[in-house]
Design goal:
elongated; 11 helices; alpha/beta
């Protein structure tokens, strides 16, 4: 629960400590009704003075005094309240609901009047919630809740909480805001994937979850210094003679299977926007594959075309043993706010530099439109991997398959793009797909509305056929 702490009662002195500033704020809080009464009272008083009507003067003074009395009473109201907010849950998949619980505590020694509670929320989460709270007794509290829902991933601030106090006649309203706010994280929707083997994997990817790292024989022969209690049968005499101290062979190191998820975020590779666009499908696909591999016990990292690796240069936990739920949370939080890159010149070359620096296990890539140059770069990524699967989206065909908006508008390629004829574009797509397959990739074109679970199973079948043909 996140508390905003006790808030000053409306009508108390302002931050400067000048009581007049609080009174001026109270006068500024006059409602339309209060201003109307005040204006009518002043007009009636002036008319009574001009016409010499004492009865009209009394009416005018009453009309003018009523809103002013309400302002003074509201200004002198002395009570303190505390507000808090709780999200359940604080991380929610897109197109799912979260519930926000609000609590207001009266920490003063006097009851409150009628209160209006309002929480600030972004428009994409729904309308701004408002609640009317009846009298809260001293030491009492009131709890209310509302639901929020977003079809778009992202991080959305909730708050600050606003408390509005009004007099019984509705002449004056004062609003005070608490300082604290919370953040709702809307992550990509994760689709469950079937457990397939993806035959032909290497570098730690396969049926077994862990295996011994044996680069030279049965043990890792990289020596280390002798420690008390080490088995003397593991002494490495050649290293002992070289370093002049007793050296032993390392114990067998458990090696965790690795998986790198490559996400293409180039702006020119994707057309369209919104929850049904090709880019959002690729982001959701990357999230689904990452969570699926983490659940199977793999060490997963997310790599983008800019060369950035999440959460660090060595991936989640340094490709080591970590809690899969924490690792999934880090990856989903990153994918919740990921956006298009602006690296027009670099393309996918920076991601290739990262992959070339190490030995990968399985590489799963979600790619947008590729020209021959970018396809050649992706083809070279296959050299340091045990297995490589690419899901390639054709953004122009994807956009054409989407229904038009109500006003007849349909997303078109950005200015400067070459709207090649359909036959030329199709031949270019087939050429880049063929280049990737010749480089050893298992390539699956992704069409609009096609589920990732079906493509995942199809990748297993394609990979099995490729392995059978290679034999």
């Amino acid at each position: 629960m996140s508390g905003s702490g006790p808030g000053p009662a409306p009508g108390t002195p302002g931050p400067s400590g000048d009581p007049g500033s609080g009174l001026r704020a109270a006068l500024a809080g006059l409602t339309t009704r209060g201003r109307s009464f005040l204006a009518a009272g002043v007009a009636a008083t002036v008319c009574a003075y001009v016409l010499g009507q004492p009865d009209l003067l009394r009416v005018g003074l009453l009309l003018a005094a009523l809103p002013l009395v309400c302002v003074v009473v509201l200004h002198r109201t002395r009570y303190r309240v505390a507000g808090s907010r709780r999200l359940a849950p604080s991380r929610v998949p897109a197109m799912s609901e979260a519930r926000v619980h609000l609590r207001v505590d009266n920490v003063s020694r006097m009851p409150t009047g009628l209160l209006m509670l309002q929480d600030r929320v972004p428009y994409v989460l729904g309308p701004r919630p408002r609640f009317v709270l009846d009298r809260v007794e001293p030491g009492g509290h009131r709890e209310v809740s509302y639901r929020v829902r977003s079809d778009l991933r992202g991080r959305y601030p909730l708050g600050p909480l606003q408390l509005r106090l009004t007099d019984p006649f509705g002449m004056c309203e004062l609003t005070r805001s608490f300082s604290a706010y919370d953040t709702l994280t809307v992550v990509p929707k994760v689709q469950p994937l079937p457990p397939v083997r993806l035959a032909g994997e290497a570098s730690g990817y396969g049926e077994s979850r862990t295996r011994a790292l044996s680069l030279a024989g049965e043990d890792d022969v990289i020596p280390r210094g002798y420690r008390h209690g080490d088995d003397l049968r593991r002494v490495h005499w050649r290293s002992t003679a070289k370093y002049g101290e007793l050296m032993v062979r390392r114990e067998e190191q458990p090696h965790k299977a690795r998986c790198t998820v490559l996400l293409d975020t180039r702006r020119e590779a994707f057309y369209g926007a919104g929850p049904d666009s090709a880019f959002e499908w690729a982001v959701a696909g990357a999230a689904s594959v990452a969570v699926h591999m983490l659940e199977r016990g793999y060490s997963v990292r997310l790599l983008t075309d800019t060369g950035s690796s999440v959460p660090g240069p060595d991936g989640v936990g340094g490709f080591g043993v970590t809690d899969s739920s924490d690792a999934a949370g880090v990856l989903l939080d990153t994918l919740a706010v990921i956006d298009h890159s602006e690296e027009h010149a670099a393309g996918l070359s920076r991601a290739h530099e990262v992959l070339r620096a190490g030995s990968e296990g399985l590489l799963v890539a979600f790619l947008g439109d590729l020209d021959e140059e970018q396809a050649a770069i992706v083809g070279r990524m296959r050299q340091r991997t045990g297995g490589a699967v690419a899901f390639v989206t054709d953004s122009s065909a994807w956009t054409a398959a989407l229904p038009e908006a109500d006003d007849g508008y349909q997303e078109v390629p950005p200015a400067g793009a070459d709207p090649a004829p359909e036959a030329v574009r199709e031949s270019g797509e087939k050429r880049t797909v063929r280049m990737l397959r010749e480089a050893g990739w298992t390539v699956l074109p992704a069409a609009a509305g096609e589920g990732l679970d079906e493509l995942w199973q199809r990748a297993d079948r394609y990979r099995s056929r490729e392995e059978a043909g290679a034999r």
